[in-house]
Protein: tRNA-dihydrouridine synthase
Organism: Raphanus sativus
Amino acid sequence: MWCLPTVRPNVSEMFKCSSSLRRFHSPMLKQATAARFSTTSSSPYLPPLFSVAPMMEWTDNHYRTLARIITKHAWLYTEMIAAQTLIHQQTNLTGLLLVLHQDRFLAFSPQQHPIVLQLGGSNVESLAKAAKLSHPYGYDEINLNCGCPSPKVAGHGCFGVTLMLNPKLVGEAMSAIADNTNVPVTVKCRIGVDDHDSYDELCDFVYKVSTLSPTRHFIVHSRKALLGGISPADNRRIPPLKYEYYYALARDFPDLKFTINGGITSVSKVNAALEKGAHGVMVGRAAYNNP
Ligand SMILES: Cc1cc2nc3c(=O)[nH]c(=O)nc-3n(C[C@H](O)[C@H](O)[C@H](O)COP(=O)(O)O)c2cc1C
């Protein structure tokens, strides 16, 4: 049995922390980025210290170009791309970085490194093929979306956040993706879905995915998803954030890395999460609305 911390993290304490932009240009962040690139089998895997979340129709090439002017070190995620789309579009994939006008699916300018490709899908073969198709572009990491509650995504079989209900499938998919790439593979998930919201079920998901595949890093949007008809936007607002689930995962799986996501809206909150022990922090809406 897994258990939550007996003392709930004191959120107001988390927010009492000096805010300083210097942190983002600090030698610590530079070192973390350099260390991550030079990871060998003998050195431990390091997750990005700070990243900008994947956001459909928001974190496109234009936004990422702007973001990279602002920050050299933040990790940038693509919008989610469905594995099936890449397969259908494979004749339009050039395999070259700089042909953005011809290849709007995978091409990006080299300045955007470090950059993560987020895939969506649940068919193991399609995800493997999509990972293979993305290989020539040189993404720094491949991430699987296990958090999207959109009925367009989650409503069509096992895709997005509904994947959390099938950890074995996610483990197999991650293993197949890893077999077709030489970069780290990661999962972005919620803390639960509908009534499947116990800490035990979340641990079961993390345990199965990490034992069935080389996934060592989970990005945790720390609220559950409600599939019963609320909009994707409300699903990012209504279910309450439960950061205690995130910190408990970081405590209970010492061999894995976890990035915290959800409701982090300022530099001081980023720093507070890092000081509290988060391995990495991902910011979504705030990084778009106030770059
Ligand atoms: C417009 C929009 C589009 C999003 N698209 C995706 C997506 O493609 N993949 C994904 O994993 N999450 C997506 N998300 C969720 C964000 O990545 C993030 O988990 C969520 O916004 C919570 O973080 P925040 O409170 O810092 O915004 C999207 C969020 C927004 C606002």
Residues 53-56, 58, 79-80, 118, 145, 147-148, 188, 221, 236, 261-264, 283-286 surround flavin mononucleotide (CB under 6 Å). Strands lie at 50-52, 75-82, 115-120, 141-146, 185-189, 217-221, 257-261, 280-283.
